[in-house]
Amino acid sequence: MLEFQIGQNALDVCKVIVSNQAEISAIRLVAHEVDNNWRQVHQTALEKLNNLLNSFEHSPPIKDQEYSREEFSRLSLNKLNNLGENQVWSITSRVRCSHGRIKHLPLMNFHPEEDVQKGIISALRYICGNNNGALLDSGRFQHYYGDFLLDEHEWTQFMAEFLMPVFLVSPRYIGHRLYEGYSTLRLTSDNQYKPKIPEVIAVL
């Protein structure tokens, strides 16, 4: 059984999970543009109100690529450096499993209001129980990857639970993900908005 290690990049974290979860047969990546998000651009209540309708926009992926578990095990960051400026690859939570079943990787993007590292870990232990996982530093935020699988109902509950503390995640992230039906977390970087490749800072 492969294990998470401090300093691992996000792609290698995903490879650990896919290797350990033998029922996964296919993994999907999406490419998308990165920029300042709606909350960053419109910081005051008045600005948000004046740009309210823009908040409902959901940007579709630029590219969509599925890999078998064997193909994914051979994937490298160099092979993913095939996008334009301000574009990155992200993994999706929705995976194909044996017998055609669909399940989800437990992925979460933390947007804490302040430095609340202890609260993030407490929430993860409460929601995920004794399941293994890793917390990654993405530069501005933190990403969680769990080494277990969720069915569709369990995934919806997983997403909803992180809204309850109100200050750990962005409700916009949850809204986008529920709207699309899967979570995403970034694997690659761009020079301007997301210059850091996420790496493991804590193993749970």
SSE map:
Blueprint: H1 10-20, E1 24-33, H2 38-41, H3 45-50, E2 63-68, H4 69-73, E3 87-92, E4 94-97, E5 102-104, E6 107-110, H5 117-128, E7 133-137, E8 142-146, H6 152-161, H7 171-180, E9 184-186, E10 199-203
Structure description:
The structure is a single chain. The chain has 204 residues and is of the alpha+beta class. It is built from 7 helices and 10 strands. The longest helix is centred in the middle third of the chain and has 12 residues. The model has no long low-confidence stretch (mean pLDDT 93).
Provide a concise account of the structure shown.
By secondary structure, this protein is α+β, with helices and mostly antiparallel strands. It contains seven helices and ten strands. The chain has helices at residues 10-20, 38-41, 45-50, 69-73, 117-128, 152-161, 171-180, and strands at 24-33, 63-68, 87-92, 94-97, 102-104, 107-110, 133-137, 142-146, 184-186, 199-203.
Number of helices: 7
Percent helix range: 25-40%
Protein structure class: alpha+beta
What is the arithmetic mean of pLDDT?
93
Order of helices and strands: HEHHEHEEEEHEEHHEE
Total beta strand runs: 10
Segments where pLDDT lies below 50 for 5+ residues? Answer: none
Largest sheet: 6 strands, antiparallel
Shape: globular
Whole-number radius of gyration? 16 Å
N- and C-termini, Cα separation: 16 Å
Strand content: 25-35%
Core attributes:
7 helices, alpha+beta, 204 residues
